[in-house]
């Protein structure tokens, strides 16, 4: 609760690198708190304010904002940019990885006043950090009567594809299958290499040696990415000339891979801008720009989160669990 009120208070403050600050590379100092973010044009190294970035993106069809889930700097930047873009174009749609498409009606019922927040959170199986991380952006949309798109694939379908493979989709009822993309496993070679390395380490990047279980885990990831891309396009069809702001974990978007890559395959004429987070370690004075230029069209530098694991084997096992099946699912 204290975290939520602290976040609300910070919305009214001017943060270095996030609010009205001159574009001066000399001011690129490390973030000062977990809420702080330094917005940068990676091609020039120029520091940007949120209003400056919003002005640059005012005509962009889809703005993808990658995040580190639960990082205060990511979520505060998303909320501030949502508001700034609205000033340029109030025809706006919020698209969220954090809600699954089979809960769209629940989300709509909340937005239209038929459910209370706790009822919505329970019925939509919302993420545990909703109140601290996503409440501000959903409330902004609700208060301004903006559509919110539940963009992710149904969790049980994702888990069953990870367990049984692509053939599981053939067992779905027609109405459920029709909600998913016709081509649910579009990908790019670079994304596959990145995915395998994230789970298995560099020794696992020989694609020919992938186990069937790993292949299915990757297909489950692709189902998420393709569904989010399809839902973004569906939102644009339902609301022509609206700008879509899509919030997603950075793994789904950075380097213009994942959701961004398949979105561009499906709609090559669509203009898509990607804003990606980069960690700027507390003990590093120089901005880590050179090795991160390709992560996004724009970058925002934030402090590292507390380290989850010291033991590399435990970290890898945790990553494998996240990408596979963290909860039981009835796939029969």
TrEMBL record:
Region (Disordered): 311-332
Protein name from the UniProt record: Iron-regulated protein
Signal peptide as annotated in the record: 1-19
Pfam families membership: Cofac_haem_bdg
Residues annotated as domain Haem-binding uptake Tiki superfamily ChaN: 54-262
Keywords: Signal
UniProt source species: Marinobacter persicus
Alphabetized SUPFAM superfamilies for the sequence: EreA/ChaN-like
Lineage summary: Bacteria, Pseudomonadati, Pseudomonadota, Gammaproteobacteria, Pseudomonadales
